[in-house]
Amino acid sequence: MTPQVVIAEEDVIASVADALQYISYFHPPDFIAHLSRAYERERSPAAKDAIGQILLNSRMAALGHRPICQDTGLVVAFVKVGMEVRFDTARPLAALIDEAVRRAYLHADNPLRASMVGDPLFDRRNTGDNGPAVVHVELVPGRTVEITVAAKGGGSENKARFVNLNPAASVVDWVLKTVPELGAGWCPPGMIGLGIGGSAEKAMLLAKEALLAPIDMSDLLARGPSSKEEELRIELYEKINALGIGAQGLGGLTTVVDVKIARFPCHAASKPVALIPQCAANRHAHIVLDGSGPVRLDPPDLALWPQIVLEQAGVAARKVDLDTLTRADVAGWQPGEKLLLSGHLLTGRDAAHQRMVELLRAGQDLPVSLKDRVLYYVGPVQAVREEAVGPAGPTTATRMDGYVEEILAATGLLAMIGKGERGPAAVEAIARHKAASLIAVGGAAYLVSKAIKSARVLAFPDLGMEAIHEFVVEDMPVTVAVDAGGRSVHVTGPAQWRRSA
Fold this sequence. Notes:
Blueprint: E1 5-8, H1 9-25, H2 29-41, H3 45-64, E2 74-82, E3 85-88, H4 93-105, E4 134-140, E5 145-152, H5 154-157, E6 161-165, H6 171-181, E7 190-198, H7 200-210, H8 217-223, H9 228-242, E8 256-266, E9 271-278, E10 284-289, E11 317-321, H10 327-331, E12 338-347, H11 350-361, E13 374-376, H12 404-411, E14 415-418, H13 424-432, E15 436-439, H14 445-449, E16 452-459, E17 468-482, H15 489-497
Parallel strand pairs: 1-3, 2-4, 7-8, 11-12, 12-13, 13-14, 14-15
Antiparallel strand pairs: 2-5, 5-10, 6-9, 7-9, 12-17, 15-17, 16-17
Helix pairs in contact: 1-4, 2-3, 6-9
C-alpha cells in the first residue's frame, strides 16, 4: 500500500505567505503581455497614458518589491486536497491559511495594507492583519495539495453582479447592459469573469474561479474559435470593448483584455449568471505541495515588461501649485485634461468623511480646514525604509458621493481626487459649488507614491490608513474627471470612442 503524503503545517503557511507576497508586486506575465498589446494599439491619448502608467507602475513594483496597488485585497484561496494527503497539524486548514495571511501582510520588508473588518454589520473594526481569508476546499483524487491564492481589491469586488435569467434570455444582452452600469470604479482595463449555471452561490464561485484561468484571448483571436464557448468569449470581448469605456473609463479601445466563462449544470427553469470584473491589479498565483517542503515561486522575467516612457502617450500636462490654487484656476480646467500637482495635499476617505460630516452636523469645527484645499481619497500602504509613504493609489470616488454636497457647502474645498466616475448628485454638487473631481490612475499606486515627498497624520489617527494625512507632492499625475461646469469625462470619453462591433 502506498503511504500517505504528509504535508507539514509550516509548509502550508510558508508557501501561502510567500505566494501572497509574490502577487503583491508581480503581475502575471500573461496579463502584462495582453496589456502591452492594448497599449500599442490604443488611439485614445488619455487611455494610452493610463495604460502606460499601469505598465510603468507594474515594472516599478516588480523591481522594488512593493505593492502594485494600495488595496492589497481580501485573500481568497482555492484549495484542492488530494485524497492520499494527510496534514500534520491539529489546526483547521483555514487557520493555516489565516496564519499565512497574517505573516504575509505583516511582513517587515513589504507590509501590505490590512483592509478586512471583523464585523461586517456593526462596529466594522479592522482585524489588523487582513484576516480571515475566504477559503474554498475541494477533495480530489491525488497525492498533492494545490492552492491558488488571489488578492481581490474592493473596487472590483464591489462591482460583482448576479442575475437569474429566463432560460431563453441572452447572456450577451445582459452583459452588455450590465458592464456600462459598473462605471469605472473597477479599474479597467481588466477582465470579466462569467459563471453560468448551478445556483446563485455556485455561479458566483464559478465567475471568480474563471478569472484565474490563463489569459489567451490574443491566441484565440489568431487561431479562431473551436467551440461555442470560445465563440461567445470572442463576441463578448469585441462587444464590451466596442462600448468605448476604455482604460479608467476615459474612453478608448480596450476595456477588457479577456473574457472568461465557467459553466455548471442548472435547473431547467433557471439560467443563473454571475459577473465579476477583475481590475488592472490582477493578482493570483498557483502552488503545489507534495510533502517535500514549502514552495517558493520563481520571479518572472522582467524582460517581458515593456519599457514605457509616458511622454510618448502624447498627453500634455498642466502644472498646478496646490498651495496657491484658487477657484478661478479650477474653473479653467477641462474634462480629460492631465494635471501635475505639486504642494500640500490632504487625504480622507470613507471613515474620515463620516466623522467630518458628523462634526459639521453637530455645528463643530473640523480638525483640519478644507478651505481652498484638494482632498485625495486614499488609504496608503505603510511606508518602509526611505519611503515617505507606501503605495498610495486612489479609492473609488462614488463611495464618497453622499458626502459631497455637505462637504463642499460647508468647507470651501476646491477639488477631490479618486478613481472612477461620480454619480449624478455628486456631479450636480460639484457644478453648484464650482469645484472639480479629479482621478488618479487605479492600478498605479506605487508610481503615484513616488510623487509623494512627505506625509504626516493631521487628524483621526485611530483610523489608521483612513486617517486624514497631509502629503507634500511633486508632479503627481491626475486627470480632470468632472470640471467646474459639471462636464464629466466618463460621459464624454466613452461616447467619443463607442463603436459598433
